[in-house]
Amino acid sequence: MLELNSIHKTFNPGDVNEIKALRGIDLTLEVGEFVTVIGSNGAGKSTLLNSVAGVFQPDEGKIYIDNTDVTRWAEHHRARLVGRVFQDPLRGTAASMSIEQNMAIALLRGKRRGLGQGLRRKDRPVFREHLALLGLGLEDRLQSKVGLLSGGQRQSLTLLMATLTKPRVLLLDEHIAALDPATAEQVLQLTNKLVRDYHLTTLMVTHNMSQALSMGTRTLMMHQGQIILDLRGEERARLTVTDLINKFTELRGKGKLDDSIVDDELLLS
Predict the structure, then answer these.
(1) Long-range contacts made by residues 175-178, C-beta under 8 angstroms, separation at least 24?
(2) In the chain, what are the domain boundaries?
(3) What is the model's pTM?
(4) More reliable by pLDDT, 245 or 104
(5) d(CA 58, CA 249)
(6) Which is the CATH superfamily of the domain at 2-94+168-261?
């Protein structure tokens, strides 16, 4: 379970460049819940994920993972509970290292690392078994340098590595945005499979409204550091992209949104 209680975060406080990135976020995700997050640029989506990952500590509020207060935990300490995949396929892997070396590092995420052997022979069958899930033949290329892989292969590997130890929370920060449509669809299918099979509590940021409604079981919309829509159940299941745009328009008419929320990037489907 993931719980955020009244999370506030301001960058450059008191400065001319002050940005109130998160304004009193209250959010609870049950175990295994898959939530998509949408909103215009600067809405606070990535800041929300960074707060959960421990990239920074909030100015106010508490963060709980499995009922444990992790608010003041450092990012490396929180890594044993949180897996993350970024938009850039190059960020999640070490290009100069082999596939099996990258996976060995992922297997040790959040654990104490002494002077013992990092890559153990007994782990190779485990790596092959997991890599076979990708359907890319990487299970037969354990010694290949990751830098030789395509962007889609690297992002698939990154996703696999992020879930290898079955983290309590999985964070996906526009993880298919840099991929071509066919590869993006393959990675989305893999995402659904891993989240479902491992029962992972997941937050996925996307600018694609169609994906926001088709992936997972709940959709949040953020604006100016706040959650202004929380859609789930039958209400969400009935919605089309057009319906969601209309909700934006309705909120804007009530003065809760400005025109920037419905931008070209957000309307991609």
Answers:
(1) 175/85, 175/86, 175/87, 175/204, 177/87, 177/206, 177/207, 178/87, 178/88, 178/89, 178/151
(2) 2-94+168-261
(3) 0.89
(4) 104
(5) 31
(6) P-loop containing nucleotide triphosphate hydrolases (3.40.50.300)
